[in-house]
Amino acid sequence: MSHKPLNILVINCDWRNLFEKDFDELLKKMDRCLMRTELNNFFFFSWSDKSYEKRQGERFFSVHKKTMWQKFRPMFDLISVFAIPHILKKHPFRPDVILVYDLGFLPAAKAVKKRFGGKIVLCLINRPEELARTRKFAAVKASYSLLGEKFFIHSADIAYTINSSMKRYIESLGFPPDRIKIFSCDTIRRDIPFIENSVRGTVRRQYDISPEKKIFLSVGRLEAEKDFPRLFEILSHLDEKYLLIILGSGSLLPDFQKRVKELGIENRVIFAGPIERKDLWNYYLDADIFMLLSKSEALGLVFWEAMYMNVPVIGSMATGILETIGGGGERGFLVGEKDDILSIAEKIDLCLAGGEKIEEMKKRAREYVEVQMKNTLSINDIL
What we know:
The protein is of the alpha/beta class. It has 2 domains: 7-183, Rossmann fold, CATH 3.40.50; 190-372, Glycogen Phosphorylase B (Rossmann fold). 42% of the residues lie in helices and 19% in strands. Helix 3 (73-89) runs parallel beside helix 4 (106-116) and helix 13 (301-308) crosses helix 16. The chain is globular, with a radius of gyration of 22 Å. It starts with 6 loop residues before the first strand and ends with a helix. The mean pLDDT is 92.
C-alpha cells in the first residue's frame, strides 16, 4: 500500500544526544516502531543536556533544549506545554502527527494540537507506573505515573502499542479499545543480513570459553527493573561449569560488579557491555540458555531474538514476558518470585538436556516470533 508522507512532531528526551552523535541509532529506534523514516518528515523537540537546532538530511530537523529539571520530571512536562508551541510557531513545520512516548508529554501534545492541529499518537511500550516502582524514589515516581494514567492519557487520539497485554492495560485505563492499535516492535527483520553472517563459536573463541562450559546469556540495561542480582544469586548456587554473559550498559554496573565479587563468581560473569547489532547474533548462537528475570517488562524484544535463534528461554512472570513465553513450557520456562533454586535448576537442566519436548518448545517459540513479525502495521497505516 502506498502512502503520502506524514509530518511527525516527536516530543521526547534525548539525554544521550543521539540526534547529533548517533543519528543512525535514532533512526533504528524510530524504524523499530514502524515510523517509516524512509518516507515521513520529522521534527524532534528534545529535552537534552545541551541546546541546538540542527538538520539531518532533508526530512529530519531537531530543536534540542537544555534543562536543569531532568531530575524533576513534572517541571519540564509543565514547561513543555508552553515551550513547544512557542518554538513550533517559529518554524514552518505543521504536524499531521504529534508523537509522544511518555504520558507526561501528553499535555504539551494537547497544547500543540489546539494551536496547530494534528493527531496525538501515544506510542506506549512499557507500563509507566510499574516501571517507576523499580526506580529510586519509587513512591513519588509511581504516583506521578498514576496521575498521567488517570488524567493525561485521554488526550491521545490513538494509542499505538506492542502486544495484547499492553492493549488490555491501556483499556483498563478507560481508553477506547477501537483507538488502540498493535504494531510489531521487532528488531529481527532489519538484522537478517547480520543473522545470516553470524558464526557459531565466535563468542567462545573471543572469551576463551571451553566447549564443556554452559553459557547463560542475558541482554538488557543494567538498571534495577532487569533484576540482574537475582541471576547472580542463581549462578552462585550452580556448578562452576555455568557462565553468565550480560550484554548492555547502565548506571548500576559498579554495583553489579561489586555484588558478583561478594558472591565469589566474578570469574563466571562477563559484563560484555553494549555491542553492535552485527555482533549480537553471535552471542545468541553460542548461548545454551537465554535468561532474564525482569521485574517489569512490557514485551521483551530480547526474548523474541533468542527464540528466533532457537535458544531455550527462561523468564520472569512480568506481563510482557508471560505473553511472549506462554505458560506450561509452551515456548519457554517461567520463574516466579518465590521459586527456589531447586525448581529453577530443574528448568535449567531440562533446557540443557534437550530432547524431543525441548526441540518442540523451541520450534513453537520460533514460529510464534515469525507470526508476530508478519504484523507490519505502520504509523501511516493507522492514519
